[in-house]
Specification:
4 copies of one chain form a homotetramer. By secondary structure, chain A is α/β, with parallel strands linked by helices. Helix content of chain A is 43%, strand content 16%. In chain A, strand 9 and strand 10 form a beta hairpin.
Chain lengths: 307, 307, 307, 307
């Protein structure tokens, strides 16, 4: 996200517009916590994981009084337009602000890549690479041990991360929320893979999938017995950090700069996304109306590549 | 490239088509050096840099006799269609083979991202991240020393790598073949950046740019004297290796699988590229006719972000 | 381990001695599975995780008949001396072989660093860095969320990995097998850390410690309620892979070369270890007699650094 | 170095001693630029490359007047003892301060590992791993091209980095300041390696070696002609940055904590080093009297491993 903050500040400065950074998202909007950002104060931040503005949930902002307090702070601080970087929840807030008359442009940030209106969200590429490195390391010793490895990754509603990392990392099976499987099917596929001569069996499981990574691991170690010695890896918040990849920084830079340009051209109530490498705008109403479907191309590739 | 080889083999297998791997490109075609590839022989290769099939130049293949020898080998080996993975030179060869009646589909691989007909070429994302890591490391001590750092990167005709890494890595200046600069302009921009309070000055220079990285460094250390103590980094072939990123492996997988599908559907003389995440085909004649122009969006972002 | 294999082969070759590689450890010894290794066959292997010789457990070798079969194979293959690379179990086997008259020198390999007679074992440095990267990534977003992060790492009997990574990575608490703690103590320390203004709380837990990482996480999320929102990371076999670090490759090279020199000078029944950067020998009887105690210096540093 | 700063602050705090951080080394001492450091202000810094205290050269401090000004600042700031982290130059300054009556303990930091009185200096392990990654990447495509790769690394007086990375990374030749070679010898060794079947030839050259990396590359490309197509990599300041490795952070933590303990026990005019993993003290006079000799063990290993 830092690369996006940097882009907003410098793209604004390029047009002689000043910027302030609101700390901890809507929490800072509610409490009026904001500082002027200069080109120097965003220098060198693009390579740090996390965000210099920090994030937090804010229940107060969700109440009518809290929301009004936030709007008052926006006016007091002299803010003429907002760039809101975040996922579903953040973008809903942006729509509310737009509806209340505050010029607002959203930029999609979500490691799950579950936001409509953009090919990719900020953070997804970095998280995919983090999982990929874990899979590569598991493979180093996997072939030496003839075991099953169950790897739990993020993705509450969306299996994108699991599929993308699974295809790139050569997992033998990927289990996603959009496509539930039974333990019987899993065990059967494992048996078939072993017959095809697969030296190991790696299962990538998204957080929101059923059965869960823990369930699968326990089942393999109890029901299936010594035949399938299963080992568990749960990456957890490791996936949310790390120095962003080049693709993530470039995406964040494009989106941040475009968000500023759209605001300055009078647009609001939209999210800026990327399509074929170019910035595109979509009304927040549309972005938030749809559930992003599973990437059928990835599902198909996963099936082929697991051969 | 290994991920592309894996994809070709497994996508073919998925349709019950057998594959052979030709070693060292046209050199192996000329000498008839090819082995059957099975799902197992491409297992786990996607994470290695380089390619299991190796690469080489082959002058013999460029002669009419050598070319005919290659065609005879294709027939003898029972090859019914070819997927050619590579850059400009490789794709020219693919066009020749197509013109000689051999079904041929190309897949773009080039760290310079200088091939028309695709958003991205295989290898570019990995190389960009390698340069980015170098820039990040230089920045760690750059701010502590108030020096100029000149970083030479690949890109003989194209400044894509330099621009992409420069924007992502926060370089103060990027010099590319498509946009020559004079030493006077460079020194002037450095002076202005210092006035704006920039704690360091990093110049990324593409291989084909003028002046070169070495020239700039020497000039700063002699003409400008102690005022601009410049340090040189030349990354060289470090940029060609390394475990491929997730984006590169996914791209290579998509292109490899699509190339097989296109061949099987009777297409030839085309290159499969990626556009907005989806495979697209372009005739090799078109691909090879145009010089890919500099990415104007990146040029514009670089200017803004260097503020 | 590959760097050690390379070192054994080339150090032997340097003295005009031939080497064969036994596949899958004692399993290959039992089945007579061994190939000649040349300088070329170990070229470039040092950077791969795992080992080209593969590893496996072998119950047959543990029986008197299986052991005798292994000894016969050693004689049949013309093996005049053995370098055994591995942990506790492998070194016990080496002692048995020495007692049966086969010249044998052990080299310690264990990511837990739980082997006596050496400052460091092969694999420990790489695993520590892998954990450290995970901790660094967790910290990126940890400060933004005010949560507790529980990270389970390897170490069944030894807390070395947990302590080393915890001190290097700035964990707030490290729980090791050698020093059990109660949940009450853990919750109390967390409360104190929060009072000192710590923006996050990271607990590194070794595999063999009590309570376990999973126990701690569950307890924090149920008993302590919303006050301590805990998130779990279990690294699992990710810790066993990855390209070895420079320190690991240098250590493995020193130990492998010295093992060959010791064998050639007529020594046997010993393990070669490292002490202050220099190779030292210790009788396998001594190595296997003692439990390596917890590193008191690390325990002390951990306490100070968690302030 | 940040890990060392953290260790000094927290080890002092552990003994209820306050710390101030002097900015930019002797430059800050001269100008009186220092801030109180708390446990919180050093939280999370260990993973950043560079140093939060910044570094700079200071010519003024080298004059008798400047030195006296520094001493006066030390007294004014209420500093009762100094921990000086750095290389040769920094340690000379520490000796001067000690001789002038200021309690001073040095800690060795130098990526060249060229300081006597310690097995390893802070920064060396990180730099070695950075070079190693570059060598690994070069090897990925090196075997596919049959070329010579010349890699210039740091080390003005000491070849430690070049040797350590060269042995770990499997370089075919390492050229260090302590052991000059002629171009004839280099070309001869290359020819012999090719005869032994080496698929590539990587030469690691320390900065202070003769001939230099640039000289070797130019010579191979002109004199030896197309037979030896040589490619140059110069890593430069990339080697000075990057997130420190686990070993570097542990070393820095041990040295920082010990330096505080030594100061508090009344010691001065010494440098704290590491020997077999334990802190040891050596008088600065001795540390600065000797030139650290080349590591003969590494030279020997390099010769064997290049086979």
């Amino acid at each position: 996200m830092n690369a996006c903050v940097r882009a907003v500040v410098r793209a604004a400065l390029y047009r002689s517009v000043e910027t302030v950074g609101v700390s901890r998202g809507y929490s800072g909007l509610w409490s009026g916590d904001a500082q002027a950002l200069t080109s120097r104060s965003v220098g060198g931040i693009a390579r740090w994981g996390g965000t210099i503005l920090q994030t937090a949930r804010c229940e107060e902002f969700c109440t009518p009084e809290g929301f009004q307090k936030g709007i008052n702070n926006i006016r007091t601080l002299g803010i003429e337009g907002l760039v809101v970087i975040g996922g579903d929840g953040s973008l809903r807030g942006a729509r509310e602000l737009h509806n209340a008359g505050i010029p607002c442009v959203g930029a999609p940030a979500s490691i799950d890549n579950d936001i409509c209106g953009t090919d990719m969200a900020i953070g997804t590429d970095t998280a995919t690479n983090t999982i990929l490195e874990a899979l590569d390391k598991i493979k180093d010793t996997a072939s030496a041990h003839q075991r099953a490895f169950v790897v739990g990754v993020m993705g509450r509603r969306s299996g994108y991360l699991a599929l993308a990392a699974g295809v790139a990392g050569g997992a033998e099976m990927v289990i996603v929320p959009e496509r539930p499987m039974s333990m019987e099917e899993i065990v059967k596929e494992m048996a078939q893979a072993r017959e095809r001569g697969k030296p190991h069996f790696i299962i990538v499981v998204a957080e929101g999938a059923r059965p869960t990574a823990t369930d699968i691991c326990e089942c393999l170690n109890t029901v299936a017995g010594p035949k399938y010695e299963a080992r568990l890896t749960v990456l957890g918040h490791v996936q949310r950090g790390g120095s962003p990849t080049a693709a993530d920084r470039l995406l964040a830079t494009k989106l941040g700069a475009s968000a500023v340009e759209m605001l300055l051209s009078g647009q609001s109530g939209i999210m800026v996304g990327i399509r074929a490498g170019r910035p595109v705008a979509m009304p927040l109403d549309e972005v938030l109306a749809e559930e992003r479907p599973a990437d059928e191309e990835l599902v198909r590739l996963e099936e082929m590549m697991a051969l």
